[in-house]
Amino acid sequence: MLESLDPGVLVFLALAGLAAGFVDAVVGGGGLIQLPALLVGVPGASPVQLLATNKLGSIAGTATSSITYFRRVRPDLRTALPLAGSAFLGSAGGAATAFLISKEAFNPIILTVLVAVGVYTLDRPSMGQMQRLRFGHVRPRRHLAVALLIGVVIGAYDGALGPGTGSFFVFALVSALGYGFLEASAKAKIANLATNLAALVVFVPQGAVMWELGLVMGACNIVGGYLGARVAVARGSRFVRVFFVLVLTAFIVKIGLDTAEQLLG
């Protein structure tokens, strides 16, 4: 596989993997960098090959950033592990039904959601700056139930479609459960690791993964994920919030252009 790629294309894909790992570690959504890069760099591959290879690259970076966050932030596993478990089940179910969803219907829906998330975040400047847990001490069962629901819903989305999953996890944990952006990012990485693994459980038996390319991009994701997690931990929730808004804006522009191209084309 690698022998058939132009060296310039391989460097381009490696840099995309590095950038995706960094962005994904801080706020999630690295797939919106890596997946389009694969589409441009390997135009002859089928959609399922691109999705599966993207998952292989992503899981390496997500695993690295998860470990880094765990060692430096120490997220509460009483919420993180059930969240990851429900996300795994949701992602496996989503991946199994991915072929039923058309991209023509998907882009406008996701664009609307991203804009709503952006407006909500900007309208609440203090959101996520400090941790104010909802239900955590008074109603721990409700706190856990909301976390499980977040895992299933966003996990199903990741398995079926995927772009921006990590960002959606961060936003849901901050807005629905009151976590600070840094703690939310740490939990989101663990959940995102589970959704990537679940999708690969579905894709690998189908022979969809381009292993050599995926491993190269995975190695670059590891470097990016490690650097991104360290920067996020060092700079704190305020930095993560600003980065979140910037990445969200980039997602809105990209998907907005894709939607306009669909409508005009």
Describe the structure.
- The chain is mainly alpha-helical.
- The protein has one domain.
- It contains ten helices and no strands.
- The chain has helices at 7-26, 31-41, 47-73, 77-96, 103-123, 140-160, 165-177, 181-203, 211-235, 237-264.
- Helix 5 runs antiparallel to helix 10 and helix 7 crosses helix 8.
- The chain is globular.
Tags for this model:
10 helices; 79% helix; globular; 265 residues; mainly alpha
First-last Cα distance = 32 Å
Shape: globular
Characterize the main sheet. Answer: none
- Succession of helices and strands: HHHHHHHHHH
Number of domains: 1
Count of helical stretches? 10
**Topology, number of strands:** 0
* Fraction of residues in β-strands: under 5%
Helicity, as a percent range: over 70%
Report Rg: 17 Å
Unreliable spans: none
Organism: Ornithinimicrobium kibberense
Subcellular location: Cell membrane
Keywords: Cell membrane, Membrane, Transmembrane, Transmembrane helix, Transport
Family: Belongs to the 4-toluene sulfonate uptake permease (TSUP) (TC 2.A.102) family.
Question: Brief description of this entry?
Answer:
This is Probable membrane transporter protein. This protein has 265 residues and is an all-alpha fold. It has helices at residues 7-26, 31-41, 47-73, 77-96, 103-123, 140-160, 165-177, 181-203, 211-235, 237-264.
Helices and strands in order, then pairings?
Layout: H1 7-26, H2 31-41, H3 47-73, H4 77-96, H5 103-123, H6 140-160, H7 165-177, H8 181-203, H9 211-235, H10 237-264
Helix pairs in contact: 1-2, 1-3, 1-9, 2-3, 3-8, 3-9, 4-6, 4-8, 5-10, 6-7, 6-8, 7-8, 8-10
